[in-house]
Design brief:
The protein has one helix spanning about 30; strands spanning about 1-10, 55-60, 65-70, 80-85, 90-95, 100-105, 110-115, 120-125, 125-130, 140-145, 155-160, 165-170, 175-180, 190-195, 205-215, 215-220, 225-230. It is mainly beta. One of its GO terms (molecular function) is zinc ion binding.
Length: about 230
């Protein structure tokens, strides 16, 4: 599995060997690093066209579907975090596109989001919380155990709204916690207090997407429905 890393640029054209009469298709051998035709190849040797983006890197490491990408606001801001159903969290150096650390959770990771320097990692029946400003590579410090009505399963999606964490689960439930800090600093410890969620928010299938806007929480499910709930937080 790979993650394509692009850079947006305003004026410089993207390089490639596109010639008159060439096929508008990326050369599969070039993508694998083994095209021997070079400038004589009739296929495109570039991931993108135009003057806005340029290909930088393809990040290889995960062995199953990638489920989350996060770039936390930390002191350095030079680390990219990715998760996958392979149960691993990769940390990448944004300057070299190389892996700096791998954390194996041993279970599928359903989603990954960040809020400031904080990472939230969705696992089966729990959420790991990690302040990357305290430590960038050693792993999460906080575990939120999911306590719903019956089994909740994999956490598929999350969003943070004004200090409240919402999580959508495989069982169709949406759970919520209010974050409470012991100080004003971004590195202060957090505790998460469970909040009651109306049963009307529960879906008949796995919740796969959450979005907040205009005092409304939107949730989408594999049961083919989208629910809209008015919340005041």
């Amino acid at each position: 599995m790979g993650i394509t890393y692009l850079r947006r640029r305003a004026s410089e054209s993207v390089s490639g060997n596109v010639k008159s009469g060439s096929m508008e298709k990326v050369c599969k051998f070039w993508a694998e690093g083994r095209c021997v035709r070079g400038g004589r190849c009739r296929f495109v040797h570039s991931w993108s066209r135009g003057d806005l983006y340029s290909y930088l890197a393809n990040l290889h490491g995960h062995t199953k579907a990638v489920t989350g990408i996060a770039l936390p606001h930390s002191n350095s801001g030079d680390k990219l975090y990715t998760t996958s159903y392979d149960g691993k969290l990769y940390i990448w150096d944004c300057h070299t596109a190389k892996t700096t650390a791998v954390i194996n959770f041993g279970v599928p990771i359903g989603c990954l989001i960040n809020e400031g320097p904080w990472l939230f990692i969705g696992l089966p029946n729990e959420i790991k919380v990690w302040n990357t400003q305290n430590n960038a590579t050693t792993g999460p410090e906080i575990t939120i155990t999911l306590d719903g009505e019956g089994p909740v399963g994999q956490v598929n999606c999350m969003t943070v709204v004004n200090g409240t964490l919402f999580a959508g689960t495989q069982s169709g439930q949406i759970l919520a916690w209010q974050a409470s800090s012991d100080g004003a600093s971004p590195t202060a410890n957090l505790t998460f207090i469970p909040l009651g969620v109306p049963s009307s928010m529960k879906h008949g299938g796995p919740v796969v997407c959450l979005c907040y806007g205009g005092n409304r929480l939107f949730s989408a499910s594999l049961d083919h429905t989208i629910k809209v709930v008015h919340i005041l937080i």
